[in-house]
Design a protein that fits this description.
The protein is an alpha/beta fold. The protein has a single domain (4-359), classed as Alpha-Beta Barrel (TIM Barrel). The protein contains 14 helices and nine strands. Strands 2-3-4-5-6-7 form a six-stranded parallel β-sheet. A three-stranded parallel β-sheet has the order 8-1-9. The radius of gyration is 19 Å and the shape is globular. The structure holds 5'-deoxyadenosine. 5'-deoxyadenosine is lined by residues 77-78, 167, 169, 207, 236, 238-239, 241, 278, 313-314.
């Protein structure tokens, strides 16, 4: 049974016709809290229609390479936090990373995402690696190395990096403080400012279901994403890691995560949004459901097989057993299950695709 209030909230968010942020916030909160089966179908189908009409019924593929599990931070949710003495640490060398990127390229993938703990790697070393990857061919390089000084982001952009992912985790200073030791929300905001000013296609995101997080917090974060005009948004459920202070906390709700993806799609028709690995690592693989809720990116793992289990930000990561040789079939099959077809291009954000002369990856007008 679909409530009138749910129809109204959906229409409000979809038309982006809000007399005030508080009205939008209320509508988003209602959508996030939907649990009735008819209402969830309506929400997710509407989100998919919005996505398909603005950027096509296609799923982009990004190869994830986890370059180092070393980290100087103490984030209370993450298994790589520096206080975790049980974590096994590794760092890939430049040649290993380039080798993973070549492997992805040879499997038809045209974006590589380099991600690591905040390990303080020398910025020049990263720049050299980026330059090497750009020599492989027309491949986009996305970085996800956390907070670094602006001049290092500039150096990496100069070396050829195209995109950067830096999740805000929460726009609420108190909630943010409850997640991180010795970190300030302002410095994360400054990093996001710098990345956007430097011309990166910029992504952000949050975990869903972190202890203390409410629908109001998530609604505020979605409004923040919309206003900032990010090109990419990543959202996955919080999964408690046994070697963190939140070991006994419950996992985030899959339903709320899917609702958040659908709500984000209504607010940001063109944004690239992954069916996150965290969603694939719960009781079942929920990534096709994410695609059926408005997501349109998949990030298969291209880290060296033996390193994957060591990059343990949360337990039970599905990718550990993924076989690279089957990646094309697996992408095709997940896309199909999600009602999409695979877009094997770099799939830049529309505004950047035009600048880069890649109108073909910009999708329908
Ligand atoms: N559960 C779910 N997601 C997590 N991340 C880190 N730790 C966890 C966890 N325990 C997410 C954070 C980070 C991204 C790389 O992974 O949002 O930004």
């Amino acid at each position: 049974m679909i409530r009138e209030a749910a129809r109204y909230a959906l229409a409000r968010v979809k038309t982006r016709n809000h007399s005030s942020d508080s009205e939008l916030r209320k509508a988003l909160m209602l959508l996030l809290e939907i649990s009735d089966p008819d209402e969830t179908v309506l929400l997710c189908e509407t989100a998919c229609t919005v996505r398909n009409e603005s950027s096509g019924a296609r799923m982009a593929v990004r190869a994830l390479v986890e370059t180092s599990s070393l980290c100087n931070n103490d984030c209370y949710y993450c298994g790589l936090n520096r206080g975790n003495k049980k974590a096994h640490r590794y760092k890939l060398g430049r040649e290993d990373i380039v080798c993973c990127a070549k492997d992805a390229f040879s499997h038809g993938i045209r974006t590589v995402v380099l991600q690591s703990g905040e390990d303080g790697t020398h910025a020049g070393e990263v720049a050299d690696t980026i330059a090497d990857i750009k020599k492989i061919g027309d491949i986009a390089v996305t970085l996800s190395f956390g907070e670094r000084p602006r001049h290092e982001y500039a150096l990496w952009k100069e070396a050829g990096a195209d995109r950067y992912l830096l999740r805000i985790e929460s726009t609420d200073p108190e909630l943010y403080a409850s997640m991180h030791r010795n970190r300030k929300l302002e410095s994360r905001l400054e990093c996001l400012d710098a990345l956007q000013e430097l011309g990166y296609q910029t992504g952000s995101g949050i975990m869903i279901g972190f202890p203390g997080q409410t629908a109001g917090h998530i609604a505020d974060d979605l409004i923040f994403f919309t206003k900032r005009g990010f090109e990419m948004i990543g959202m996955g459920p919080f999964i408690p890691h046994p070697d963190t202070p939140f070991a006994r906390a419950p996992s985030g709700s899959v339903r709320t995560t899917l609702n958040a993806i659908a709500a984000a799609r209504l607010c940001m028709p063109n944004v690239w949004m992954p069916a996150t690995t965290a969603l694939g690592s719960m009781d079942k693989d929920w990534r096709p459901d994410a695609l059926r809720s408005g997501a349109n990116v998949l990030m298969p793992n291209f880290s060296p097989q033996e390193k994957r289990k060591l990059y343990s930000i949360y337990p039970g990561k599905r990718c550990i057993g993924e076989r690279t040789a089957l990646v094309q079939q697996e992408c095709e099959s997940i896309a199909r299950a999600g009602g999409l077809t695979v877009d094997w291009s770099r799939a830049d954000a529309p505004a950047f695709a035009v600048t880069l002369g890649k109108a073909s990856s910009a999708g329908p007008a």
